[in-house]
């Protein structure tokens, strides 16, 4: 095994929570509002269904091939050539996804706060930091996530408390005026985010308590769904259906806080907290990419390729995405299909195929 | 390639001199002879030009020629006179067949050791015990009369408290072990002795509670100590740096303490205590980040107060690390966060200042650090005045001169005070040091810079291990049972289990159901 | 060792490159209020109130603040963004909107239409969403030039006044919602300048809120006075603090009450094609002044007062409705959204005809007023005991 560290299932859940929520929290409210109007709070519930499916599929695959990541057992299931091809495709995709995540993070920062700073500085500093964490291994990333997560969750609750007087609870009506349709339509895009749970395929092999993997994975999906639901409600109560036009509604909500005439314009605090979440997300993606690539290329250790991958990701974050609008378009038009297809369906196919090929997996160790 | 055939960018490393090793001693080959004159000659050659080594020739009884060799200053001459020379001189050597019996009956010294080689003699003389050489036998006797001027047991200067014992360790190892032994009377308290340091032969004791501690921890500690090959150990700091897991980290991975009660409580928790002769600071391993934040006093005061003070400490840790950086970041990059009236006051006070925010902050911080360090070196009366008061006065003068703004002085003063709240000096200095890179980052990238620096520090802390125990144990990996001593201090009747790393062996330190109450005494 | 040096060298490049977003506080022109007026040629004139830090720092050392704390600069441009660019050429520090709490539209500008300029306020990252919006009678710029006695600058005056909820309080977000909402109508507080004590101190006065400006489709269509504003606030459910002075029947003198608490519910209903809105209100308060000879400790007397109380509120609501609903036909009460929430299907069908439906919505008021406490004394404070009426 390339990775000697071990994490507990609980740490895995804690790790995945900011991984999904960090970017989702930024843009999901406005995306769902565009389609679902004031039913936007229902959309995360529908969207999370695919999250549960993904977790169960990946967990089932893991149970058939314990202690192996998806790169390794795809070779067993599909045969060496096809398996390697699949692995290569997956790794390229992950490099792209990591680059996109980094780009979205940097765009948010540069667009709202550090307008004059060249975006390459923001991207490279974050990737350098994540490289540092990734080289430490999955344990370090999990521990950092455990240390940071309370600071990620508490401010959301704090926001509720501080903004409570500005909430107009009426805005939730009429509930389901047009039936379930709008909220389902609004769920189409966020479910792309939930398919990112396929990252579990790279984390499950390192659990100390494997049986709890499924339970905590499901709990993690549930926690993410709850968070998105609450954040959707917050922006709904605050801004009404205008949310659809705002690019970063939660940030606008944080800006709106005015407590005792003293705490005002706290969006920089949101930025600080959100950087923590983005760090964990990028680290997990980066780690999966590094580990997977090392396994694909049959290296003895993934540490040497971490920095080169970092350069690659930086480059990828610039190629073919000229502006924020294109990035949003990817999020809205491409990823909702790419996600389920590659991250949920392909593992599902792998799972089905693995039933067909029982002889290969028994007795083989890597 | 240069002429030697080596690559040009590789420096010419000097041939390594082997360090004076712990053992074997360079005198190992020498043995005692029957002739006391030969022994004397050998010793005098070895101790040539050592004017503090006294060779006193005398006759045991009337016929046996003997010498007593000792280092003046390391033993009381009166004791040698009274308990060795006098009885031996007045003894009748014919009554006793050999020295053994004579020593048993005549010598009024409680600790006697037989020595067989010159090396042993040197060891004993070096330790302060006079050595008795006599004609006719190939051995010598070491007399346990070592006594030297030592400091009285005083209040530990580095760890002061309001409640709790006021005894601290001293530089003498025996005094320290006696203080621990006085508190833990059970024979399960084991103290293993070893000598480290080629020239200094410093005595080091590894203390642990058998039955509570994880034996692998003790083995690991001893192995690491045995690995040290160095000329001399003068302070426990040398040992600390040579046995820690991550030497590159600014954070300490062993706890140093001057208080015997801290050492004993660590022993009862299943930790290993390393005592070093020559320094009052003992080392405790393993340690977590949160253990470094515990002061001995926390456990003697009431738990509610202790909890509140603990939270205050964590808050001020954050302040001490981040306040100047946050200040610089907010007034330079994120001015919209400041409430309008405050911003207006700040803008007004900064009107006269010629420096940008980062430069001003660095200026004040470095000045403050310099004053602090200077205050430590000065004699007590002047030192206190110079450090804090001087800083504020200078700060005020600087504000009046228009060099810095008043908010900056306040920020720096609060940061300095916050730093004093950290109970361990070693952690405090680590934080002081780390403040500066974060300030640079804050000045360049604003809050993003501060966050990047903070994340980097946390990730680094996550990679640290102290003797195998993750540095941030309790929070990550998350163990809610540990919180009773990390997040808050639960009352003594609730602290049922020991810290987790002794988990399987001896988990419970108390009987269950210890909570006090007025009716409890009536329970059957 | 070499690796560390190399890393440090590379990291220092980061700092040598420059701190790109660094702006010292003293390089910022802190804008405390902005006024947008209509200028000729379809242009707008943007005036900003800039805070002068030096005035405060000099004023601290010396005894009196001789100079003004703020200064006003203006520029003309095709739109706000355009005007800002021109304005920046006149101010040596970088314009900073982060603390601008007050935006005032001039009357002409309001009548021309504010939607174009609203876009800047919402899109640009700097202006804060909680800034208050106003319309001023005449030119807005003159409000910024005033030197008030109590507060430090005039923007603070109107902000504090708005906070007291005497008139309407509208933030940028709320205005945006109104303009983009279903009712297509908006309302902003209307401010004017108080007349100065004498001619010599022309600018040493303050602005004050005198009513409400009513907008339809982003253009100002009329204004209502303070009394009607109170009624509007009742209908919008924003009433917090006010004093009702009521005259009772057949009684000389007036009674004034300070309501503490109001509970307002809106119940829309559509019956037989008739759109109806019922306003249920419950309010309670204390008596602050009794100019009559009634005994306030007598519950029956109190009932008379409560009735007068109730009547006063109904009168105000009537007044507001008359002006806004029937004359200006602007749905600033947002009945549209209330109907949508209760009857989404009917609303969707009638969406395009709201302009005709709204004036015909029947408003039924159901108001209960209670007087809970008579203040500190029971009998009238000014008249001898015999004259007090017991029944």
Automatic annotation (TrEMBL), chain A:
Subcellular localization, as worded in the UniProt entry: Membrane
Record flagged with keyword Membrane: yes
Keyword list, A-Z: Germination, Membrane, Transmembrane, Transmembrane helix, Transport
Regions crossing the membrane: 12-35, 41-61, 81-106, 118-138, 145-164, 184-204, 216-239, 269-290, 302-321, 333-356
GO biological process, one term: spore germination
Membrane topology of the entry: Multi-pass membrane protein
Protein origin, superkingdom: Bacteria
CC per GO annotation: membrane
Gene3D superfamilies: Amino acid/polyamine transporter I (1.20.1740.10)
InterPro entries, per the entry: Spore_GerAB
KW Coiled coil (keyword) present: no
Pfam families, sorted: Spore_permease
Similarity remark: Belongs to the amino acid-polyamine-organocation (APC) superfamily. Spore germination protein (SGP) (TC 2.A.3.9) family.
Name under which the protein is recorded: Germination protein
Automatic annotation (TrEMBL), chain B:
Pfam families assigned to the protein according to its UniProt record, in alphabetical order: GerA
Coiled coil: none
GO CC annotations on file: membrane
Transport as UniProt keyword: no
Region of interest (Disordered), ranges: 1-27
Keyword Membrane part of the UniProt annotation: yes
GO biological process: spore germination
UniProt keywords, alphabetically: Membrane, Transmembrane, Transmembrane helix
Biased composition (Basic residues): 1-13
Transmembrane segments: 272-293, 314-333, 382-399, 405-422, 434-461
PANTHER family xrefs: LEUCINE ZIPPER PROTEIN 4, SPORE GERMINATION PROTEIN
Family: Belongs to the GerABKA family.
Protein name (record): Spore germination protein
């Amino acid at each position: 095994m390339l990775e000697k560290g071990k994490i507990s299932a609980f740490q895995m859940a804690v790790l995945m929570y900011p991984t999904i929520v960090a970017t989702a929290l930024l843009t999901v409210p406005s995306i769902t509002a565009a389609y679902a109007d004031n039913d936007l709070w229902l959309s995360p519930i529908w969207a999370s269904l695919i999250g549960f499916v993904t977790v169960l599929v990946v967990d089932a695959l893991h149970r058939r091939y314990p202690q192996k990541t998806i790169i390794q057992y795809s070779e067993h299931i599909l045969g060496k050539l096809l398996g390697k091809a699949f692995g290569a495709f997956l790794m390229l995709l992950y490099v792209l996804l990591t680059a996109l995540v980094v780009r979205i993070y940097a765009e948010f920062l540069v667009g709202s706060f550090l307008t004059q700073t060249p975006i390459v500085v923001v991207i490279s500093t974050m990737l350098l930091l994540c490289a540092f964490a990734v080289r430490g291994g999955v344990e370090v990333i999990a521990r950092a996530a455990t240390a940071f997560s309370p600071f990620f969750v508490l401010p959301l609750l704090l926001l509720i408390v501080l903004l409570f007087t500005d909430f107009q609870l009426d805005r939730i009506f009429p509930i389901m005026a047009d039936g379930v349709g709008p909220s389902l339509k609004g769920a189409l895009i966020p479910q792309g985010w939930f398919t990112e749970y396929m990252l579990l395929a790279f984390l499950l092999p390192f659990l100390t308590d494997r049986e709890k993997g499924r339970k905590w994975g499901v709990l993690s999906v549930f926690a993410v769904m709850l968070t998105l639901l609450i954040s959707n409600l917050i922006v709904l109560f605050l801004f009404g259906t205008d949310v659809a036009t705002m690019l970063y509604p939660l940030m606008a909500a944080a800006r709106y806080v005015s407590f005792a005439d003293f705490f005002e314009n706290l969006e920089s605090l949101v930025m600080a907290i959100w950087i923590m979440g983005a760090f964990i997300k990028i680290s997990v993606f980066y780690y999966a990419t590094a580990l997977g690539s090392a396994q694909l290329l049959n290296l003895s250790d993934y540490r040497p390729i971490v920095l080169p991958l970092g350069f690659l990701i930086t480059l990828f974050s610039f190629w073919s995405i000229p502006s924020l609008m294109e990035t949003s378009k990817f999020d809205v038009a491409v990823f909702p299909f790419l996600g389920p297809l590659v991250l949920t369906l392909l593992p599902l196919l792998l799972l089905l195929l693995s039933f067909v090929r029982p002889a290969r997996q028994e007795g083989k160790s890597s | 390639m240069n002429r030697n055939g080596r690559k040009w960018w590789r420096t010419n490393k000097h041939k390594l001199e082997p360090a004076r090793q712990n053992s074997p001693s360079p005198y190992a080959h020498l043995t005692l002879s029957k002739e006391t004159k030969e022994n004397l000659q050998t010793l005098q050659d070895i101790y040539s030009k050592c004017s503090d080594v006294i060779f006193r020739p005398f006759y045991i009884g009337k016929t046996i020629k003997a010498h007593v060799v000792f280092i003046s200053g390391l033993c009381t001459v009166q004791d040698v006179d009274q308990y060795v020379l006098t009885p031996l001189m007045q003894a009748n050597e014919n009554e006793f067949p050999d020295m053994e019996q004579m020593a048993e009956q005549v010598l009024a010294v409680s600790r006697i050791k037989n020595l067989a080689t010159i090396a042993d003699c040197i060891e004993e003389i070096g330790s302060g015990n006079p050595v008795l050489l006599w004609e006719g036998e190939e051995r010598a006797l070491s007399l346990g009369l070592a006594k030297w001027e030592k400091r009285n047991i005083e209040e530990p200067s580095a760890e002061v408290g309001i409640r709790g014992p006021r005894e601290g360790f001293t530089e003498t190892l025996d005094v320290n072990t006696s203080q621990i032994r006085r508190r833990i009377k059970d024979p399960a308290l084991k103290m293993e002795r070893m000598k480290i340091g080629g020239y200094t032969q410093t005595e080091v004791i590894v203390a642990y509670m058998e039955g509570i501690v994880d034996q692998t921890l003790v083995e690991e500690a001893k192995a690491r100590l045995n690995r040290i090959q160095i000329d001399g150990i003068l302070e426990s700091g040398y040992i600390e740096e040579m046995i820690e897991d991550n030497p590159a980290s600014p954070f300490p991975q062993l706890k140093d303490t001057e208080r015997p009660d801290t050492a004993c409580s660590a022993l009862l928790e299943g930790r290993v205590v390393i005592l070093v002769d020559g320094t009052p600071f003992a080392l405790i391993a393993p340690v977590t980040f949160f253990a470094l934040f515990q002061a001995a006093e926390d456990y003697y005061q009431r738990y509610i107060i202790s909890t509140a003070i603990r939270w205050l400490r964590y808050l001020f840790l954050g302040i001490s690390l981040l306040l100047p950086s946050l200040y610089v970041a907010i007034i330079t990059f994120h001015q919209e966060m400041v409430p309008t009236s405050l911003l207006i006051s700040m803008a007004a006070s900064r009107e006269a200042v010629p420096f940008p925010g980062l430069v001003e902050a660095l200026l004040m911080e470095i000045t403050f650090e310099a004053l602090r360090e200077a205050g430590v070196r000065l004699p007590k009366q002047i030192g206190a005045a110079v450090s804090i008061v001087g800083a504020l006065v200078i700060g005020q003068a600087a504000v009046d001169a228009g060099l810095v703004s008043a908010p900056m002085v306040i920020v720096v003063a609060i940061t300095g005070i916050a730093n004093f709240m950290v109970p361990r000096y070693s952690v405090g200095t680590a934080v002081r040091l780390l403040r500066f890179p974060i300030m640079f980052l804050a000045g360049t990238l604003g809050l993003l810079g501060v966050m990047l620096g903070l994340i980097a520090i946390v990730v680094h802390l996550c990679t640290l291990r102290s003797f195998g125990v993750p540095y941030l144990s309790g929070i990550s990996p998350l163990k809610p049972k540990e919180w009773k001593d990390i997040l808050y201090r639960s009352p003594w009747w609730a602290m049922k289990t020991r810290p987790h790393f002794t988990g399987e062996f001896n988990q419970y330190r108390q009987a269950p159901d210890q909570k006090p109450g007025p009716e409890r005494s009536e329970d059957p | 060792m070499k690796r560390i040096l190399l890393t440090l060298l590379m990291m220092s490049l980061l700092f040598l490159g420059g701190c790109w977003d660094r702006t010292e506080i003293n390089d910022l022109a802190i804008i405390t209020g902005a006024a947008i007026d209509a200028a000729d040629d379809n242009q707008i004139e943007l005036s900003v109130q800039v805070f002068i830090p030096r005035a405060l720092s000099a004023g601290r050392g010396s005894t009196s603040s001789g100079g003004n704390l703020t200064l006003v600069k203006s520029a003309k441009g095709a739109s706000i963004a355009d005007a800002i660019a021109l304005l920046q050429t006149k101010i040596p520090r970088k314009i900073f909107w982060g603390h601008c709490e007050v935006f005032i539209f001039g009357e002409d500008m309001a009548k021309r239409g504010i939607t174009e300029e609203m876009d800047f306020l919402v899109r640009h990252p700097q202006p804060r969403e909680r800034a208050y919006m106003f319309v001023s009678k005449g030119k807005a710029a003159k409000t910024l030039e005033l030197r008030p006695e109590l507060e430090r600058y005039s923007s603070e005056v109107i902000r504090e006044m708005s906070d007291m909820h005497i008139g309407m309080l509208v933030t940028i977000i709320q205005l945006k919602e109104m303009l983009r909402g279903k009712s297509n109508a908006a309302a902003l507080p209307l401010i004017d300048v108080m007349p100065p004590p004498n001619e010599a101190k022309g600018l040493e006065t303050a602005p004050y809120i005198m009513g409400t400006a009513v907008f339809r489709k982003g253009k100002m269509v009329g204004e209502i006075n303070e009394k009607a504003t109170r009624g509007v606030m009742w209908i919008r459910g924003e009433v917090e603090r006010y004093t009702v002075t009521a005259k009772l029947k057949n009684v000389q003198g007036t009674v004034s009450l300070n309501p503490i608490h109001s509970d307002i519910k809106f119940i829309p209903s559509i019956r037989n094609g008739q759109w109806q809105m019922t306003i249920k209100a419950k309010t309670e308060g204390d008596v602050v002044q009794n100019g009559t000879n009634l005994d306030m400790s007598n519950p029956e007397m109190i009932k008379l007062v409560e009735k007068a109380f109730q009547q006063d509120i109904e009168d105000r609501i009537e007044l507001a409705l008359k002006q806004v609903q029937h004359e200006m036909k602007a749905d600033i009460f947002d009945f549209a959204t209330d109907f949508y929430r209760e009857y989404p299907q009917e609303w969707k069908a009638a969406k395009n005809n709201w302009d005709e439906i709204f004036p015909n919505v029947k408003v039924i008021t159901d108001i209960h007023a209670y007087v809970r406490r008579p203040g500190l004394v029971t009998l009238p404070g000014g008249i001898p005991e015999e004259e007090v009426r017991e029944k």
